Amino acid sequence: MNPRSDLAAYACHPAASRGRRHPETPAPTRSEYQRDRDRIVHSTAFRRLVYKTQVFLNHEGDLFRTRLTHSLEVAQLGRSIARSLRIDEDLVEAISLAHDLGHTPFGHAGQDALHECMADHGGFEHNLQSLRVVDRLEERYPHFDGLNLTFETREGILKHCSKVHAQQIEEAEPGGVGGRFLRREQPSLEAQLCNLADEIAYNAHDIDDGVRSGLITLDQLREVPLFDEYRHAAQAAHPHLNEVAMHRRLLYEAIRLMLSAQVYDVIDATSAALARAAPASADAVRLSAPLVCFSEPMREQSVVLKRFLFKNLYRHAQVMETTGRAKQVVRDLFTAYLQSPHEMKPAFAQQASAGDMAVKARAIADFIAGMTDRFAVREHQRLTGLRLLD
Ligand SMILES: Nc1nc2c(ncn2[C@H]2C[C@H](O)[C@@H](COP(=O)(O)OP(=O)(O)OP(=O)(O)O)O2)c(=O)[nH]1
């Protein structure tokens, strides 16, 4: 091991990685986690994120977040916190950029519909699918499937996992990334940080996209104390932002202040938790509760913001209406490929015809999950003659 003085003892040190499933010669100039990050950025699944829904369907507007811009924002927030905590920024970046690779087209609507279609075949879950993408579905290297990422990046990607799935992963890969769910252990600090950065990022950008879309208003946001506090701070510091023509800048400034406050809060609360727990190694952070955390008041405020977004944006009638049509597209695609697997790309068609019903269903789920929104819409039109989404 080659300890790096910029990293704390509790950080994941790349030279002490638990390694890759297929051994490879180390890169001459890059750390193992840099190499993971680079593999993710060059993957096909990563490029597809640009045309995948975060909340608003991809065709609804060019300026809304997509899974790609969301992942970049998570990486940005994660890296800046990681540097302050002296944990590995490259690992945080790799996990952040890969955490949503398994998302279906049409965001939560697509995932829910695919989960229903797969009810008799083990279901569908985007976290498991993200791992499946980096472990199996990417086809880029001569001697292995997937990207052959390090244990630490793969473990960070698998944010949630049921006991049943964890057991299956553990049987296939003893001592692997499923084990911590069976032992009820937290992952590395880098992975813990990505989970929180994900939440901070989407809470902030969904306010921005929600107001941009007109589905929520600045006035409504008065009921969210976290946002309201920084809106008032922005108005007090810059009175000209009260003019109606300046309201977009007011929104940005309030979000900017809110983001900064959350970042500093995580740094302070986590530093205090680390000081109390005093973990002497990367393994010593694997406790039952996360060490990367908000302070209690910030956590409570963040929950209020989340609830507001859920009620007023994610369950808005207009979002629900497109959600219904997006689910129909996914269900119809699944039915069409079940009847005619040869309509899929050859690799998936071949897979579907090579096994029993469960193998066939999984091949169809993999094919659909990999689609971008617009590819799914076009494919649906080709197979059904209907255009449900424009
Ligand atoms: N349209 C819609 N969007 C939702 C819903 N629930 C969450 N979202 C939005 C909020 C965020 O922009 C994003 C977060 O979803 P993710 O799938 O990335 O995170 P989630 O916490 O559901 O899963 P995760 O813990 O990351 O595995 O999706 C929903 O029911 N409908």
TrEMBL record:
The keyword Hydrolase applies. It holds the Pfam family HD_assoc. This is Deoxyguanosinetriphosphate triphosphohydrolase-like protein. It comes from the Bacteria. GO terms for molecular function: dGTPase activity. InterPro entries: dGTPase, dGTPase-like, dNTPase_2, HD/PDEase_dom, HD_domain, PHydrolase_assoc_dom. Residues 67-203 form the HD domain. GO terms for biological process: dGTP catabolic process. Belongs to the dGTPase family. Type 2 subfamily. CDD domains: HDc. It comes from Acidovorax soli. Residues 1-36 are annotated as: Disordered. Keywords: Hydrolase. The lineage of its organism: Bacteria, Pseudomonadati, Pseudomonadota, Betaproteobacteria, Burkholderiales. NCBIfam families: dGTP_triPase (TIGR01353), PRK01286.1-1 (NF002326).
